[in-house]
Specification:
two-stranded antiparallel sheet, about 350 residues, alpha/beta, 10-stranded mixed sheet, 12 strands
């Protein structure tokens, strides 16, 4: 049996090797992915207007991933340094989520756990559990600066409850003298909420949150185009720049994650020293060397912008998928002039990068 210290060394060795291999863009790797997104299920207790249809008529389309099936997908965690433990939905809504979290804590010593949640169910029990782990980041998908807009976007009147939950976990972490868990607020920018982005930054400052992520709307189906900011690019950019200046004043890191409407498509953007900067060249992508996204069905996706299935962990070993033809092809061409089709749609390659 490998000791906890031995498991940590395995991940550290894999991380170092992975850095070496991606620096020279090797196609066949000895290292394994360092960043893994592991599924928890697809059910949610919100009905956000910018998400997939979650009306009562579609409830049968969504389900929790049972712990017993989730464990069968855990092979990549032996090597990963960072784990996203969430699904396409609300992870805390899954009654087996506590078993998953505890299993990771007990079996993968020192791994960084990242959770994306709407925060509604982050009650006292979870506050205690989350505050007991030293390497935890919680992304709270809030998307609004006040209760009225939150209800409009989510279909739920839970804004004040979420704010209370955030304050509780921040207070407990402070009392323990720890920087963990880190709380991040995320904001899916659409035409219904963009004017609130500066107030959202002020809210983060009031809560003692030091990182805000702004996400562009992903067009999951054609009906979502009515919420897109693309027709209002100049206005959206002006609001973002106001929020960026405010974030700098408050000491908050404001991260634009693929806001394709902020800049022309022939440039990319990043925040440096509190300013939005531009570069003319397309962004270097390292995800085919570092990243693994697993669906509840066991399917492996190479990134959040690709629908290509690289293999299935219920049916194949990790090594077979990781160095299979599809991953080797992606590593060969992702940073070339001959971009794979999915890469041509990725803002990191053709528009905006972090």
């Amino acid at each position: 049996m490998v000791s906890k210290e031995g498991k940590i060394r395995i991940r550290e060795k894999n991380d170092n090797l992975n850095q070496e291999e991606r620096s020279v863009q090797k196609e066949i790797l000895e290292s394994f992915p360092v960043n893994v997104i592991s599924p928890t299920g697809t059910r949610c207790n919100n009905r956000c207007i910018f998400c997939t249809d979650r009306s009562p008529e579609t409830s049968s389309h969504y389900s929790d991933l049972p712990f017993e099936r989730w464990v069968k997908l855990s092979e990549p965690l032996e090597y990963a340094t960072s784990l996203g433990l969430y699904g396409w939905g609300e992870p805390l809504f899954n009654p087996d989520y506590e078993k998953m979290f505890d299993y990771v804590v007990e079996n993968f010593e020192g791994i960084e756990i990242n959770i994306t949640t709407n925060g509604i169910l982050m009650n006292g029990k979870w506050t205690e559990k989350f505050s007991s782990y030293d390497r935890l980041s919680i992304n709270v998908s809030l998307n609004a600066a006040n209760a009225g807009t939150y209800k409009l976007l989510s279909g739920n009147d839970q804004f004040d409850r979420i704010i209370e939950n955030i304050r509780r976990i921040k207070d407990l972490g402070g009392k323990k003298g720890k920087g963990s868990p880190e709380i991040v607020l995320s904001f899916v920018a659409i035409k219904e909420n963009i004017v609130e982005l500066p107030d959202f930054v002020r809210l983060a400052a009031n809560l003692g949150v030091q990182k805000v992520v702004v996400q562009d709307l992903i067009i999951l189906h054609q009906g979502l185009r009515r919420h897109s900011l693309t027709p209002y690019a100049d206005f959206a950019k002006s609001i973002f720049l106001v929020a960026l200046d405010l974030a700098k004043e408050e000491g908050i890191l404001l991260i634009p994650f693929v806001p394709v409407y902020f800049l022309p498509t022939d440039s990319e953007a990043f925040v440096e020293n509190g300013k939005l900067e531009r570069k003319s060249s397309a962004g270097f992508c390292h995800e085919p060397w570092t990243y693994l996204r697993i669906s509840s069905e066991g399917e492996i996706k190479p990134c959040c912008f690709s629908d290509e299935t690289m293999g299935n962990l219920y049916e194949q070993k990790l090594a077979e998928i990781w160095n299979g033809k599809k991953y080797r092809y992606l590593r060969k061409y992702v940073n070339s002039q001959e971009l794979p089709e999915d890469c041509k749609r990725c803002p990191k390659k053709v528009g905006v990068t972090l």
